[in-house]
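Example record for the data management plan.
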Amino acid sequence: MGATGDGQGRPARSVRGLLEPALLAVTATALLSGGIAWAAGSRGVADACWAAGTVLAVVPAVAWVLAAVRKGRAGVDLIAVLALAGTLAVGEYLAGALIALMLATGRALDAAAERRASHDLRALLEHAPRSARRRTGREVAVIPLADVVVGDVLVVGPGDVVPVDGTVLTGTAELDESVLTGESAQVERGTGEPVRSGVVNAGGVFELRATATAQDSTYAEIVRLAQHAGAERAPTVRLAERYAAWFLPLSLGLAALAWLLSGSAVRAVAVLVVATPCPLLLAAPVAVVSGLSRAARRGVIVRDGGALERLGRARTLVIDKTGTLTVGRPHVLAVAAAPARSPSEVLRLAASLDQVSAHVLAEAIVREARARGLALSMPADATEEPGRGPAGTVDGLRVGVGKSGVPQEALPDWAHAVDNRAVLDGAAIAWLTVDDALAGAVLLQDPLRHDAPRTVRRLRSAGLTRLLMLTGDRAEPAREVGAVLGLDDVRAGQLPADKVAAVQEERARAVTVMVGDGVNDAPALAAADVGVAMGARGSTATSEAADIVLTTDRVDRLADAMEIAVRARRIAVQSAAGGMAMSLLAMIAALLGWLPPAVGALLQEGIDVAVILNALRALLPARGTRTALEPDAEDLIHRFAAEHDDLRDSLDAIREAAGLLSAQDAPGSLAAVRHVDHLLTTRLLPHEYAEEHKLYPALNKQLGGPETTETMSRAHTEIARLSRRITTHLRMADETGTLKPEQLDDLRACLYGLHSVLRLHFSQEEESYFSLAP
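Corresponding structural encoding:
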């Protein structure tokens, strides 16, 4: 492939978009017209047509070579120019016309593989505010953003984007910082605490004292970072150019040797004709375009062929957490209840009150309660204080959801256990108070995507050797995700500038891919060798700063893209290397005088056909690729995935019953175990039985045999064994009316063991099977 114009502006790309198809049409017409004239016996007309096609190809080819030389590269087009000029000089016009058509075809294919979208940051600029409300005394006036000076008092209303960096002047500011950090959770800033520009006011009106002008604020710095990172990214040497580094001097040397040994310029031209780098000009673009087409069918839009080539050589992956490896919105992890209350009651009361709240955690709590089929009541006298959460009356009870308001040292034992679990699991806590007393808690967490673990394994299999996660989140949840996925490094609390620095550091070691979905990721995506945006829910700015966009909200499409890129590049290399080997043999034959230029050009076209046919294999799935799920298997996966969601409360009940047994005199422990036994009998065991006899046979048929689900079947056996053991304990308790002390240790072990096995089993099924279906 010749000079591609990577550094050209839009007008140059537009001219190229018109020139190359026109050149292909003209050279094809010239070759065909000459062929018709030759068949009609008009040899002079045929030569004139072929010569015209050759001349028309020489002019742009010389321009391409000069453009490459100006950039410090001598592209493979130089051989084509010399061959074209040589055929004109020695009168081998048919050979020239054939080379012209080959050159035009290669350029057209290369252009098709290089439709690169603009990397402008329009969405970043559109998000930025252009005015601010400044309060002077009792008057509030709207002023241009550029007029804000340090010390101004600004009024920020609900839903407003904070215009400049500042500190909260009065009250509490509840902010959505996802634009800067990528994290879905909202944060609170009290009086005197700093607030960065670009974040969104998710609460009530608050006042801000400006500590920087718009130009010196955080959001403006993000825009500059993205622009600078994109400008600093060095162009990557393409596949054809790397091969040209040795093929070009070899070809010229053999042509010179042929002339020297034979004294015939025709023989030297014959060497150049068969040396014309068809495999490089055709094989790589065809394989890459085929890879682009296959990627598009998998919901992966690759901006240009260069991005696909770089992805195929990547060895390091830098990935954001929230919305990429995780779902991107909080889900209920567990519900804890105070003694004498049940988790279902706690969740119902919390969700009933949270119906009137717009908080992201409240939305998750309401969604979970409705998924569990709980009947919610409409609250009365509901109020919501920023930073504290909603309060109101539900079914005659005074209920509050949010911060506990109880000092750490005054928390009851069960609440201490909740607090400890939140730290261990990296979860947020929404405390429930009833009549001003702690009654329960809801733990919330941004869960890992079901397809994330399998995606990480596939990425490593595709050739990535280092996986690094960057996140603006806290260290605890970040480390939890990193441990589950087996990542090589995890860095928490990362700002956009930190992410750019990390990407540049990794780029110094190896070809680096950056994956993200938020505006805060745009600078890092622009700085990476290959930027990948989760475009289904990601920001427009992120998509525009990326080389690859995943159009579906599935991170496993990244693994698809990596595998397609690696295979397309491997096929391109095979085709180019094989084609050049055949060309080298033809060059030796031409050097010895066995191939005249016209015959050499026809032979080169035969090599082209072989190379193209091999390169087109990139359109096909790789051998051993898993076929798409049949409709009945997909329906079963959706059914059992939904049942997993419905059974989360059963897992909570098992854990709670085990906890109650830790205190032998805990009231309700026997009743809790009976409740667990009822859940096992009526819900969990029927679910596992149906999986064993309906889902697994369908998957075995789809995935190639029963060995694919054998270990999961063994888990079903263990779940049934522990369930029978719990039932046996209850029968023993029925004989005496209570649980005997000697039963407690084994029963508690059964409950905790069952909870652990079920959690692991659910996770394995969701990762290995449920992630197969869209």
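Summary line stored alongside the record: The first strand starts at residue 131 and ends at 136.
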